Protein backbone atom coordinates (compact mmCIF):
# COMPACT_ATOMS: atom_id res chain seq x y z
CA UNK A 1 0.00 0.00 0.00
CA UNK A 2 1.46 3.38 -0.95
CA UNK A 3 2.34 5.79 1.79
CA UNK A 4 0.22 8.95 2.08
CA UNK A 5 1.72 12.08 0.62
CA UNK A 6 2.78 14.55 3.25
CA UNK A 7 3.19 18.23 2.51
CA UNK A 8 6.66 19.65 2.53
CA UNK A 9 7.19 22.39 5.11
CA UNK A 10 8.16 25.41 3.03
CA UNK A 11 6.85 28.17 5.23
CA UNK A 12 4.27 29.01 2.57
CA UNK A 13 0.63 28.93 3.63
CA UNK A 14 -1.24 25.79 2.64
CA UNK A 15 -4.89 25.55 1.64
CA UNK A 16 -6.98 22.51 2.38
CA UNK A 17 -9.39 21.15 -0.20
CA UNK A 18 -12.30 22.23 1.98
CA UNK A 19 -10.99 25.81 2.13
CA UNK A 20 -10.51 25.85 -1.64
CA UNK A 21 -14.06 24.55 -2.15
CA UNK A 22 -15.48 27.23 0.15
CA UNK A 23 -13.52 29.89 -1.73
CA UNK A 24 -14.91 28.64 -5.06
CA UNK A 25 -18.47 28.64 -3.71
CA UNK A 26 -18.04 32.15 -2.34
CA UNK A 27 -16.67 33.33 -5.67
CA UNK A 28 -19.61 31.77 -7.52
CA UNK A 29 -22.07 33.73 -5.35
CA UNK A 30 -23.49 37.11 -6.28
CA UNK A 31 -20.86 39.60 -7.38
CA UNK A 32 -20.30 42.44 -4.95
CA UNK A 33 -19.84 45.90 -6.36
CA UNK A 34 -16.46 47.37 -5.52
CA UNK A 35 -16.88 50.73 -3.84
CA UNK A 36 -14.95 52.92 -1.43
CA UNK A 37 -16.31 51.16 1.65
CA UNK A 38 -15.32 47.68 0.41
CA UNK A 39 -11.92 48.99 -0.68
CA UNK A 40 -11.24 50.55 2.72
CA UNK A 41 -12.27 47.35 4.52
CA UNK A 42 -9.90 45.35 2.33
CA UNK A 43 -7.11 47.87 2.88
CA UNK A 44 -7.53 47.84 6.67
CA UNK A 45 -7.59 44.02 6.68
CA UNK A 46 -4.49 43.95 4.51
CA UNK A 47 -2.68 46.38 6.81
CA UNK A 48 -3.69 44.42 9.93
CA UNK A 49 -2.42 41.14 8.50
CA UNK A 50 0.76 42.32 6.84
CA UNK A 51 4.18 41.14 7.86
CA UNK A 52 5.71 43.85 10.11
CA UNK A 53 9.18 43.09 8.79
CA UNK A 54 7.99 43.67 5.22
CA UNK A 55 5.21 46.30 5.24
CA UNK A 56 3.10 47.10 2.21
CA UNK A 57 4.64 49.55 -0.22
CA UNK A 58 2.97 52.99 -0.03
CA UNK A 59 3.22 53.32 -3.81
CA UNK A 60 1.14 50.17 -4.07
CA UNK A 61 -1.53 51.62 -1.74
CA UNK A 62 -1.69 54.86 -3.75
CA UNK A 63 -1.91 52.87 -6.96
CA UNK A 64 -4.81 50.80 -5.61
CA UNK A 65 -6.65 53.94 -4.46
CA UNK A 66 -6.18 55.49 -7.90
CA UNK A 67 -7.50 52.34 -9.58
CA UNK A 68 -10.58 52.40 -7.36
CA UNK A 69 -11.19 56.05 -8.17
CA UNK A 70 -10.85 55.38 -11.89
CA UNK A 71 -13.21 52.39 -11.67
CA UNK A 72 -15.86 54.46 -9.88
CA UNK A 73 -15.51 57.21 -12.47
CA UNK A 74 -15.93 54.72 -15.32
CA UNK A 75 -18.98 53.20 -13.61
CA UNK A 76 -20.51 56.67 -13.34
CA UNK A 77 -19.83 57.36 -17.02
CA UNK A 78 -21.37 54.02 -17.96
CA UNK A 79 -24.55 54.76 -16.00
CA UNK A 80 -24.79 58.21 -17.59
CA UNK A 81 -24.41 56.74 -21.09
CA UNK A 82 -27.05 54.12 -20.37
CA UNK A 83 -29.56 56.75 -19.23
CA UNK A 84 -28.77 58.99 -22.23
CA UNK A 85 -29.21 56.05 -24.59
CA UNK A 86 -32.55 55.21 -22.99
CA UNK A 87 -33.67 58.84 -23.27
CA UNK A 88 -32.62 58.93 -26.92
CA UNK A 89 -34.55 55.75 -27.64
CA UNK A 90 -37.66 57.12 -25.96
CA UNK A 91 -37.32 60.37 -27.89
CA UNK A 92 -37.06 58.44 -31.15
CA UNK A 93 -40.02 56.26 -30.18
CA UNK A 94 -42.20 59.25 -29.28
CA UNK A 95 -41.40 60.84 -32.65
CA UNK A 96 -42.74 57.70 -34.34
CA UNK A 97 -46.18 57.96 -32.73
CA UNK A 98 -48.72 58.45 -35.52
CA UNK A 99 -46.28 57.14 -38.15
CA UNK A 100 -46.85 54.06 -40.29
CA UNK A 101 -44.04 51.55 -39.76
CA UNK A 102 -42.96 48.29 -41.29
CA UNK A 103 -41.13 45.57 -39.38
CA UNK A 104 -40.18 41.94 -39.71
CA UNK A 105 -42.23 39.65 -37.51
CA UNK A 106 -39.96 37.73 -35.16
CA UNK A 107 -41.89 34.46 -35.45
CA UNK A 108 -42.37 34.30 -39.24
CA UNK A 109 -39.78 36.73 -40.60
CA UNK A 110 -42.49 38.22 -42.84
CA UNK A 111 -42.98 41.98 -43.09
CA UNK A 112 -45.91 43.58 -41.28
CA UNK A 113 -47.18 47.17 -41.18
CA UNK A 114 -49.14 49.29 -38.76
CA UNK A 115 -49.47 52.71 -37.16
CA UNK A 116 -47.49 53.46 -33.99
CA UNK A 117 -49.94 54.40 -31.23
CA UNK A 118 -47.64 54.47 -28.19
CA UNK A 119 -44.23 53.73 -26.75
CA UNK A 120 -42.93 52.21 -23.55
CA UNK A 121 -39.59 51.41 -21.98
CA UNK A 122 -39.41 47.93 -20.52
CA UNK A 123 -36.43 45.88 -19.29
CA UNK A 124 -33.96 48.29 -20.90
CA UNK A 125 -35.67 48.13 -24.29
CA UNK A 126 -37.92 50.60 -26.07
CA UNK A 127 -41.11 49.05 -27.38
CA UNK A 128 -43.59 50.58 -29.81
CA UNK A 129 -47.30 49.85 -29.54
CA UNK A 130 -48.65 49.35 -33.02
CA UNK A 131 -52.28 49.44 -34.21
CA UNK A 132 -54.07 50.15 -30.93
CA UNK A 133 -51.72 48.36 -28.56
CA UNK A 134 -52.43 44.80 -29.70
CA UNK A 135 -48.89 44.49 -31.08
CA UNK A 136 -45.52 45.59 -29.64
CA UNK A 137 -42.41 46.00 -31.76
CA UNK A 138 -38.86 46.92 -30.74
CA UNK A 139 -37.12 49.83 -32.40
CA UNK A 140 -34.54 47.44 -33.85
CA UNK A 141 -37.28 45.51 -35.70
CA UNK A 142 -38.42 48.58 -37.68
CA UNK A 143 -37.32 48.30 -41.31
CA UNK A 144 -39.24 51.25 -42.85
CA UNK A 145 -41.46 54.14 -41.84
CA UNK A 146 -43.72 56.67 -43.54
CA UNK A 147 -45.93 59.56 -42.53
CA UNK A 148 -49.50 58.46 -41.95
CA UNK A 149 -51.77 59.36 -44.85
CA UNK A 150 -54.39 61.98 -44.03
CA UNK A 151 -57.72 62.75 -45.68
CA UNK A 152 -56.16 65.84 -47.30
CA UNK A 153 -53.51 63.74 -49.14
Labels describing this entry:
SH3 type barrels; rod-shaped; 22% strand; alpha+beta; 5-stranded antiparallel β-sheet
- Give the strand content: 15-25%
- Tell me roughly what share of residues is in helical segments: 40-55%
Order of helices and strands: HHHEEEEE
> Which ranges are low-confidence, i.e. pLDDT below 50, for 5 or more consecutive residues?
7-17
Quickly name the level 1 CATH class of the domain at 61-153. Mainly Beta
The outline comes out as rod-shaped
- Helix/strand class: alpha+beta
N-C termini distance: 97 Å
Number-wise, the strands total 5
CATH architecture of the domain at 61-153: Roll
Classify the fold: give the CATH topology of the domain at 61-153. Answer: SH3 type barrels
Quaternary form: single chain
Q: What is the alpha-carbon Rg in Å?
A: 29 Å
Strand order of the largest sheet: 4-3-2-1-5
The number of helical segments is: 3
Mean of all residue-level pLDDT scores = 76
Major sheet characteristics:
5 strands, antiparallel
Structure description:
The protein has a domain at 61-153: Roll (SH3 type barrels), CATH 2.30.30. The N and C termini lie far apart (97 Å). It contains three helices and five strands, in the order H-H-H-E-E-E-E-E. With 153 residues, it is of the alpha+beta class. It has helices spanning 17-28, 36-48, 58-95, and strands at residues 99-104, 111-122, 125-130, 135-138, 142-147. A hairpin with a 4-residue loop joins strand 3 and strand 4. It is 41% helix and 22% strand. A five-stranded antiparallel β-sheet has the order 4-3-2-1-5. The relative contact order is 0.08.
Amino acid sequence: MPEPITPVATGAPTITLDTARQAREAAAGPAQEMNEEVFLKLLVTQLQNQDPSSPMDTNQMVSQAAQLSMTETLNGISKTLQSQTAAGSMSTASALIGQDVEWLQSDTGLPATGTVTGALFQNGETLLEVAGGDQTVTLSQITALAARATAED
